[in-house]
Structures are given as structure tokens and as C-alpha cells.
Amino acid sequence: MSRRGLFIQRKHHPHHRGPKAHKLAFCTDGTSLFLSFGTVLCSGYGIIQYRDQQRLSGTPSFICRSLGTCRRAISSIIRTKMLLSGDAEENPGPSLRGMQWNCAGLSQGKRLALHKTLVDERIAFCPLSETRMTPGEAACFSVAGYQHHGIARNCKGAGVSILVRGDLPVETGMDVVGRIEQVHATIHLTCGTALTVTSAYIPPKHTFTATDLDTLLTTDGAQLIGADANAHALAWDRASPPNTKGETLTQWCIDNQFLVCNTGECTRYARHHGESTPDVTLSRNCTVYTWTSLYSPDSDHHHIFFDVIVGDGTDALSCPRLQKPMYAWLKANWRNFCLKVDELCRKKVVEGRTSTPWNRN
């Protein structure tokens, strides 16, 4: 055929009051066939087709005669591609995926939701704050596929932790329970590079100085600090007025060559106080990009996702995929579940009634 394109349109009856007929266009450039619909139902379908090849007798002129045929072809390509990728990421790049979250207490439901988020987002490490665990809970706490390193809650703090994928070599650092709660973990990467991850928490009523912040310095190499500092400065918080703690933290970052990775997005929402950004991500000797704050239904603090590049190498980090957990839903005690949900709903209703302005003293 000498024609370079084919246009097909279904006739629209003048008495028909329904939606107009769709337009289907085929455009060939010699090696590829691209079809697109006038609606947004489908776009971006393509198959390799050599129009000038000799065909066997009885072979139809066009391979793709229907949308179903095209969908099956694309599904087959995707399945083949997934099989070829094997048990490693297809192209993870020379970076690690990180997550930061103030969980406001790790209940059993939050632990299941956290594990699902870690697996779905393929998180390599995750600094957590306000875990609110007792010493016994902190000692036996675990997440499938991850190593845990953290400290329990004391009389003035809330507890901090770090989760690192189980297949990454990790060296745990010191734990500090003081004015600034903090834990450290060093992830050893290829070619002798390493990343020190720090999780820190400063209660709202606590003040700090530059000397207190110097306790966060544990290495001269690459370091990433995920902290709920409860400090506000124009460098990362545009929703709250700056305070003294924000000025102190900003000057400390300048003196110690730390970069603020926040993009200005809010990281917390409270019903009575509105939006704010008490959580900060600080980096030194490493590159952090795609910093994003996303709403979390399990806490008043958002999930913070980011990618971090360590070193100048271009070798991809081949991290095996984590297997999603398999739950025995048929063995669950749904009667007990319903009772607990009803009890929690009644408790929330009572709390809502007592917190209304006309019921306050």
C-alpha cells in the first residue's frame, strides 16, 4: 500500500442522541504502528508492524483489528518484560529510597499499614519518631524484611527508631536519650561508600542550642538526618511564623554545611492549629531529590518520601524486591474486630463531644 495512513470513522445517525462515534486513526512511520482514540479511554498503544513484508496466504492485512487484540499484545509484552527483569529492580539507579514519618505511636494497625507502605514504595530506610514504645516493646519490635534500631519512650520523650532493609549491611551507632532523642545507623554501600542515617525528635516544649545539635554529628562522610524538630523557619516552613528554635537550627545547618531538603510542603495537619512543617530532612555530602510530603491517614504527620544519592558512582544498586506479606484473612476473628471498631467509634464520639467549644471550661 502506498498510503501512509488510514482513517476510520463510524457513521453517526442524525436521530441518534447518544454520544458521538469515536474516531480511530492509524499512522505508520515504516517500522511502528500507532493507534489513538478521540476519547481518553485509551492512548499510547503501539505494535511493531512491517507493512511491506511478505505475508502467508490467509493472513489478515492488519494484525490489530480490535482493541482487545491490542490489549492482549501489550499484556504479553509486559509479562515478558517482568519475567526478564527477574528478582532485581529493572533499573533502580545509583540511589536509595527513603521515608521519614512521625507515627504518633505504633499501634498494631499502624504497623501493618507501615509495612505495606514500605513494601509498596520499596523503601530502603525509614527514620521514625514518636514511636511511644516501652523498653520491652522496643526490644522485640520488628517489621518483616527490615532491621530495627531504636530507643524506647522515657518520661519526657516519645521514642525514635530507624528501619533498614534486612539485605543491606548496617552498623548501628549510639543512642542518646537527652534533650534531643536520637539514634544512628550507618548503611554500607558498594565501593566503600556509606550513608549515616539519623532519626531525631525534639519535644515542642524543649529548647536547644547549637551545642545540643552538635551531638547529631557522628561522621564526616555522607549523613542524612530525619528530625521532628518542632522548629519553624522560612527555609522549610511557610505556614507558621519563625521561632527561636528555627533560627538556631538554620544557623547550625549553615555552620556545618547541611542542606535543608524540604521543598516548602507542609508535613503536619492539626484540626485546631492547621498546617505546619515541624519535620525537616537535612543532608550533607549526599544528594537528596524527589522530596515529597504525602498525607497519611494514620497520623497527623505526613509521610515524607525522598531519594538519596551517595558517592559519584554510576553503578545501579541491585536491591531484591520485598515479598508482600500473606495474611490468613479467613482465620481472622472478625467478631472481635467488629467489637473493637465499635468501641473505638464510641470513644471517638465521646471525645468529639467533650472537645467542642461550648463544652470547654
From TrEMBL:
MF annotations from Gene Ontology: RNA-directed DNA polymerase activity
Record field: transmembrane: none
UniProt region (Disordered), positions on chain: 1-20
Key words, A-Z: Nucleotidyltransferase, RNA-directed DNA polymerase, Transferase
Every Endonuclease/exonuclease/phosphatase domain range: 196-304
The name this protein goes by in its record: Reverse transcriptase
Lineage: Eukaryota, Discoba, Euglenozoa, Kinetoplastea, Metakinetoplastina
